[in-house]
Amino acid sequence: xxxxxxxxxITAGDETDEITRFTQEDVNKKLAQRLRELNFWKDEVQSxxxxxxxxxxxxxxxxxSLENSLESTEHPQSVTTSCLTYRQGREAIDMVQDDVEINLxxxxxxxxxxxxxxxxxxxxxxxxxxxxxxxxxxxxxDVADKNAAISIDNSCHTLNNKDTDxxxxxxxxxxxxxxxxPADWSNYSDANIKKAECEKQASVTxxxxxxxxxxxxxxxxLTQCRNVDLALKKRVEECSNAKERLTGHLDKVEKEIxxxxxxxSQLKAAIDEKLAPLxxxxxxxxQRSQRPNIELTRDPAQYQLVNEVKLIESAIAALESQLxxxxxxxxxxxxxxxxxxxx
Length: 343
Hints:
Elements: H1 2-72, H2 74-87, H3 99-158, H4 182-241, H5 245-288, H6 300-342
Helix pairs in contact: 1-3, 1-4, 2-3, 3-4, 5-6
């Protein structure tokens, strides 16, 4: 009888060993499969996150273009208003509502309309950037959660019976109250990706709208500016024909001054436009200089940034040289104007 009991015990031990070994191998396979799934979805979410990040950067540039376009209407608006105010100083027979007056009033209307469209489009852009950042937040959270899950499951997958840090824990087999079903888990990431893709496509569409708005408003302003210029030119010609040669010559000098002032304004604007890219390049170099240890490399980006700074500074120097020459020419024209007026 004792022999039989020992035999049964040995057989039972062998059977449980086999079951335990098989079960552990099955768990290892399932953990490996789970890690593959986690890495797959992490890569998918990470890819979408990078695309959204890139789209946000691109849309921010378009937002900057909108803001620049809006800002660029302030000077024409001020000039047009000033022109209307100055023309109130006309006397006697010259106080007429001529083509110049009509076109200036039309220009005020066009500028106000352009500003309204730009402001509305800018508001839409700000909202779209907010929506993209919201999608980015959920993607980042998803990636972070999956990285944590990968770390945990990878640690579990590498555990074996000979490890010293294994132990028995009470209650670990109980159902997790907050756990979700596998389908819900994959649907969550899929939903985040689809939402981000939807917002990205909306942003792409909006960028197309922005480009169209900027181009159209620019054309509207230029067209009306030309109309005003033509009306002014015609009026000046009509007045010039009634003046003496000296007055005509003075008018010519004043036109040259106006042209030179416009040239100077353009040069100053061109210089100002170079400052932002220069600041960006400087900031990038400053930030990259903080890379730690071995990461502080003279990589292609570093060389290109240094080259970019040199190119921009060279361009600014050339523009400033032109500006100095234009201002000197302007001073000469102004002195000539004073002499003509005194005559």
